[in-house]
Amino acid sequence: MSYLVLARKYRSQSFSEIIAQEHVTRTLQNAILAGRVAHAILFCGPRGTGKTSIARILAKAMNCSEGPAPSPCNQCRSCKEITAGNGVDVMEIDGASNNSVDQVRELREGLGYMPAHSRYRIYIIDEVHMLSTAAFNALLKTLEEPPAHVLFFFATTEPHKIPLTILSRCQRHDLRRVSTPELTAHLALLCASESVSIGEEGLDMIAREADGSVRDALSLLDRVIAGLHGASAAREDVAAILGLAARSQSFHMAAALFQGDTAGVLSIIRDLHDSGVDLKKFHADLSTHIRNLLVAKVEPAKCREILDLPDSAIQSLLDQAAPLTTHYLSRLMDILMAEETGMRHASHPRLALETLMLRCLRIQPALSIDRLVERLDALRNDMLAGPENAPAFKNPPLLSPGPANQPLPAPGSEDKAASGIQESRSLPPDPAAPPTNTKAPADKGPTVMPHPAKESAAPAQKKTSPATDTGVPAEDHGPAPAEKPLPPAMDPAFMDMPEEAPWPDTLAKPPEPTPPPPSAKAVDPEAGWKLLVADIRKNTPSLGELFATKTTLKKVSDQSIHIEVQGSGFSVARLGNKKTRHMVESLTEKYFGKALKLEVSTLESDSSESLRNQSEKEHLRNDATTHALVQDALEIFKGRVADVTFL
Q1: Position 431 in a domain
Q2: Which helix (H) or strand (E) holds 564?
Q3: Domain check: are 139 and 31 in the same one?
Q4: Residue 155 needs a FRET pair 20 to 30 A away by CA distance; which of 4, 423, 616, 638 works?
């Protein structure tokens, strides 16, 4: 006799042997005891969950010589014939290959014959959704009023394809997918019966690959047993035989993605490809792993109930998800799911997976808002604790001022914060030092900024020059004595300069003289406008390009400059906002001789374009207010969105 595969050898022969479908088997047993078995029953559910097996067991229970009984004896003639598949009173029909209306008519013609030796004449139609519409219509009247000795048991994986007129005439029972722990326990019992030792992790891998199907799990187990060299197999052996990637590979790939390790990601893909792993299946496994991380991040307390994973794997998920944000994991999940169809039909899976992983690497894990708030709170507490708890900063070493750069003291100063500097200024001068009001030769050092650069030198002069207190005439704006300055970090004169002041080494370089602004009457409006736009383009290229291509100078008056904007709503909003107006108005004095107010008008477009721009704005406003980070911020700070500004 040829080898009998495990799926046939261990096929359930009684209701008690059906796995994880107690809600269906209990209902049928109660109906048998109460004598309320329907004449047409439809079994729905995923593949390999026991639909046809339950239909056969129910047929045995109804035709058993000791029945109808909730548990068939499996010893009588009828039970043995049904088990062997050659019963004359129980006909099993494949709906996929017998789906024409003529075959259904032949079935109807045989309904009038009484059973040969059993109680009922039973028809089991598998994959009933494959029947044609005409075949279903031919079956309607029979299903509504069948003969008393006829029962119909249907099985299908796609009940939505069955006409409602058929569904309304059947009693429906939905079978569920078998969970991974239940499948693993069932496989362990079968391994013990076959005298085969497979580790729990290996059985768990088989159960996950079966995806809730008992028949698929038995077929995979048959394959693993056939590929064993001995009587035992570890997780690595199961993965190698089935061509699967171990769960640890998904962990390693996810860790490399989170760390931004491009070389590590490509190396893992290369190893998987070289070991013969199905990269399309690995993409699905990685998507499942990211989904599990998202569940562990959102519901850390209930993830053990949601995920069918061992405790060790759950703890690993919690540890890996701890430093990540929900938004980051959601973005990864979106990318992986968006490319699912492309991966499934890719002719070069390795290239497709590498490209997909490189896209995922472009997403950097962001700092969670909770941790950001914690850091801000810590910084605020440090600031409130006082300056004595602030970190000390080292000041650069101060050297004693030399005779050539000894500044004059400034008596009477009310700035108490500069007392240390005033003490250093009051040191007695070196007798060999020349007087400070004596002009030094021009070749001994760079000169101080000349008179035309009043505005840039004003802050430094106000802070450091003691001329008004030492008798030096204030109106003497000639060049100061040429002295060799100390480096900025060594000269105490620069220690109390404000942050806005230019770096001291630039004070020694005379700026290029700027010509006086032209008068308003001498400026050509078109030429001045072109110069102004060129200045904006130099500092802000994108804004300058909009001014150059989307605006037209209409009028220049004594008080304002009027431009007309044409284009999309984005251009109008960008050129007419407050920041842009301030920039243009600050430049009008330079190019038009006086400050002018900017007036912006819009070149009216047709109503359809206006409505389209308004719709685009509403769409952008909705996207901004519903963004995940915005929602997180609103939830944390208990705030609301006051306004949305278009740039």
Answers
A1: no
A2: strand 560-565
A3: yes
A4: 4
* Statement to judge: residues 166 and 220 lie in one domain: no
- pLDDT < 50: residue spans in the chain: 392-484, 486-509, 519-521, 605-608
Three-class SS of 473-518: CCCCCCCCCCCCCCCCCCCHHHCCCCCCCCCHHHCCCCCCCCCCCC
Global model pTM greater than 0.85: no
- The confidence score (pLDDT) of residue 449 equals 44
Check: CB of residue 211 under 8 Å from CB of residue 235. Answer: no
User: Quick check: 577 and 540 in contact, CB under 8 A?
Assistant: no
Whether the CA torsion 32, 38, 40, 45 is positive or negative: it is negative
Q: Which of 122, 147, 176 is the last residue of a domain?
A: 176
Phi, psi of 599 (to 5 degrees): -115, 130
CA separation for the pair 327, 369 (Å, rounded): 10
Token code pair at residue 383: 């600031």
Secondary structure of residue 453 in the 3-state scheme: coil
Residue 493's pLDDT is what?
45
Q: Is 121 found in the same domain as 210?
A: no
Residue with tokens 């993965």: 239
Pair 90, 146 in one domain: yes
The number of distinct structural domains making up the chain is 3
* Bridge partners, 94 (sequence order): 126
| Chain-centre distance for alpha carbon 502 | 45
The predicted pLDDT at position 122 comes to: 92
Q: What is the pLDDT of residues 535-549, one digit of tens each?
A: 888 888 888 888 888
- What Rg, from alpha-carbon coordinates, does the chain have? 43
**Which amino acid is present at 76?**
C
> Domain containing 593: what range?
525-604
Contact 177, 283 (CB under 8 A): no
Cβ atoms of 52 and 128 within 8 Å: the answer is: no
Whether residue 645 is contained in a domain is answered as no
Q: What angle do CA 47, 186, 242 make, to 5 degrees?
A: 65
Residue 70 belongs to some domain of the structure: yes
- Edge-first strand order for the sheet with 171-174 is 90-94, 121-126, 150-156, 40-44, 171-174
Instruction: Dump pLDDT digits (tens) for 394-410.
Output: 444 444 444 444 444 44
